[in-house]
Amino acid sequence: MRTERDGRRTVELWDVQTATERAKVHIDEAAHRAERLLSDPDTKARREAVECRWCFYGRNGMSGQAFTEWTCGACGEKASHPNTRVPRLCAACAKELHLCRQCCADVELRRRRTL
């Protein structure tokens, strides 16, 4: 049971046990994410999504649930996206330029001399 002493909350064994288990889960999730980032097990799906390894495996998928208007950074086409995590490029431009739709990195993370 949590108690207050002198206006502040005290730390109880339950708090320590809960925080410890939560930290272990976060470490396991981070290790799994790192393993997937390095091994690229879903290469075909990632390339079809036109995303780099970081955006496909590593990014936190958090976004707001609101239709968001956006403009392609290459062709200027305006579109609507079903959430607030809008891509920077439309699918056609991303495929043509071989760039990640989300962050504009080279899809295979190769260093380029030209666009």
* Distance linking N and C termini: 61 Å
Please tally the helical runs, counting DSSP H or I stretches of 4 or more residues. Answer: 4
N to C succession of SSEs = EEHHHEEH
**Coarse structural class:** alpha+beta
Describe this structure in words.
It is a single chain. This protein has a domain at 42-97. Helix content is 40%, strand content 10%. The protein contains four helices and four strands, in the order ββαααββα. It has a two-stranded antiparallel ribbon. The chain has a two-stranded antiparallel sheet with strand order 3-4. The longest helix has 27 residues, at 13-39. The mean pLDDT is 89.
Provide the fold topology.
Elements: E1 4-5, E2 8-9, H1 13-39, H2 43-48, H3 53-58, E3 68-71, E4 78-81, H4 91-97
Antiparallel strand pairs: 1-2, 3-4
What's a concise summary of this model?
With 115 residues, the protein is of the alpha+beta class. The chain has helices spanning 13-39, 43-48, 53-58, 91-97, and strands at residues 4-5, 8-9, 68-71, 78-81. The strands form 2 sheets. The chain has a two-stranded antiparallel sheet. Strands 3-4 form a two-stranded antiparallel sheet.
